[in-house]
Amino acid sequence: MAAAKIKKGDSVVVLSGKDKGRTGTVLRVQPKDGKVVVQGINVAARHRKPSQQNPQGGIDRFEAPMSMSKVALADPRDGKPTRVRFEERDGRKVRVAVKSGETIDG
After folding, report:
1. Distances from the Cα of 85 to the Cαs of 3, 22, 42, 57, 60, in angstroms?
2. Whole-number mean pLDDT of the chain?
3. N or C terminus of the chain: which is more exposed, having fewer CB within 10 Å?
4. What does pTM read for this prediction?
């Protein structure tokens, strides 16, 4: 399996769709489906009927998974979208922002 370019806790920029240009933090990654869940992005609403557990009913809002191809890592230097490259630095394989050359994980 290839190394993950986007991980939980990363800051990402949305490249397309209704939330284009917005930035958020990755809450969950679903590598098998190629999807990510980003905080405050791609919010879906479900209308719920009143039930035993939820007697009030109402509208549930939650972040829906979105395709990994719709997000790009935010450059640590300026916050703009960047691609990711892997390099060996100090004997460790690290993620590096292609735009600025800055290390992403420590």
Report:
1. 10, 23, 27, 47, 38
2. 92
3. N
4. 0.85
